[in-house]
What we know:
Blueprint: H1 7-18, H2 22-35, H3 43-61, E1 82-87, H4 93-100, E2 118-124, E3 127-133, H5 146-152, E4 155-161, H6 167-180, E5 183-186, E6 219-228, H7 235-246, E7 252-254, H8 266-273, E8 276-282, E9 294-297, H9 302-309, H10 313-316, E10 317-323, E11 331-333, E12 343-349
Amino acid sequence: MPANLTPQYHKAEEIYKQAKTSAEKIAALEEMLRVMPKHKGTDHLQADLKRRIAKLRDEDAKPKGKKAAFDPFRVDKGGAGQVVLLGAPNAGKSAIVARVSNAATSATPFPFATQGPVPGMMAFEDVQVQLVDLPPITADFFPSGMLGLIKSADGALLVADLSSDGILEEVDTIVKTLEASRIRLDDPQRRREPARNGGEGSAAGQVAEPEIELEMLVTAVPTLFLANKSDAPGAGERLDLVREYFGEKFEPIVISAETGAGFEGFPKAVFDLLERIRVYSKEPGKQQDLSSPFVLKRGQTVLDLAARIHRDFPDHLRQARVWGSARFDGQAVQRDHVLADRDIVELQVDI
Length: 351
């Protein structure tokens, strides 16, 4: 029986041939498997795709040898999440990090002072967020080693220089350089709704074919746009240009790392970007512990918290009580109850 492979399959196959990393290859193979017709004529091909996916995953899971090459852009994650700073030379990334964290960095008046990643921890109430100052990005300078760090980060701060007459070109260069490497900076305040079938460009009454593009291999990084140096001469006029040119893509947060203007809500904005929540544990019959919250992803549940506390807890969880997002304080809730920021949770476990 002929396979009768679809155009979507062949497009995904072409993306697979162009893929360079294991993650990109796995994503392409999974898409090929998803869109191919399922019948006897494709049984062997399905089995081959599954075998190739399993092999790639096994290779990724194997421990690397002790003599593996040193990666200068490897930064182990810490705190509630990892946020990288992106910007052109002299945009003020280091000054921002120095103002809000304990990073071993300082602002300098000359470009390219940051040669590698410089991590620091920023406090937000009772948690820490890791900020990573990165080397600048220009049309002629973009260390390939930065790619993996940016893709794996939980968020990004795109820093624009309101003192520079070339601000539009500088920001545009960064955005397009990353897009060429399949990284999309995604401002949560500017997320668009997905296109609907039958909309513009499709005939009335017809269902649009799902288009398989490079999107399946694109990493979307939640991003805040920081318009820095608001105290510079002409900053207001340049800010108007930024809003006119990038307004559909980013909502600028206007700051000055020099004077501290605009930093009042900065830590909270960065924490909100991560889409994390803080949850406090409470032992039965005791006061809640508000000193060190568990940090979970927004949308996670009581069961997710139980697994974070101890791997055996989910199997032995008898009851959970919640103060905060429950209808009344101390209410018994189901295991799939979705938690909210600053909830207090008492887990009753039979062990």
